[in-house]
Design a protein that fits this description.
By secondary structure, this protein is an all-beta fold. It contains no helices and 9 strands. It has strands at residues 9-12, 21-27, 33-39, 52-53, 63-64, 70-75, 80-86, 97-105, 115-124.
């Protein structure tokens, strides 16, 4: 548990495939909003190699696992939101791995930024 609720969760709704939408549900969102981070190379993140303890950035107890390649603002309701990532219909992407994680505003987080991080996931694009 981080902040005032259970940790936010990313729940994939399907398998990422070329030419399709990869859908993810986010749960346990205190303010019904989040920033979804999608990253492709945790070894070469703009913040340095990942995972990265965010305590030095004012978010103690949280670890960043996804590089900041794409950040998408999502809005939901009643503690849930949905996110979809369009995967291009190009075979060159088959086998590509990526990570996702969410930055979740939480007024009860107990840190100066008022945010927590969700769990993280790694996915691999298929046909």
């Amino acid at each position: 548990m981080r902040g005032g609720q259970p940790a936010a969760q990313l729940i994939p709704q399907d398998t990422p495939r070329i030419g399709a939408l990869f859908r993810v549900e986010l749960n346990h969102l205190p303010l019904d909003v989040a920033l979804v981070i999608t990253g492709f190379d945790p070894a070469n993140s703009s913040l340095g190699p990942l995972p990265l303890d965010l305590g030095t950035f004012g978010i103690p107890g949280c670890t960043l696992y996804a590089s900041l390649d794409f950040v998408t603002f999502v809005v939901g309701a009643t503690g849930h939101a949905r996110f979809a990532l369009a995967i291009p219909d190009d075979p060159v992407f088959v086998g590509t791995r990526f990570q996702q994680q969410a930055v979740v505003p939480d007024p009860t987080a107990g840190n100066a930024l008022g945010v927590v991080l969700s769990d993280a996931m790694t996915a691999q694009i298929g046909r």
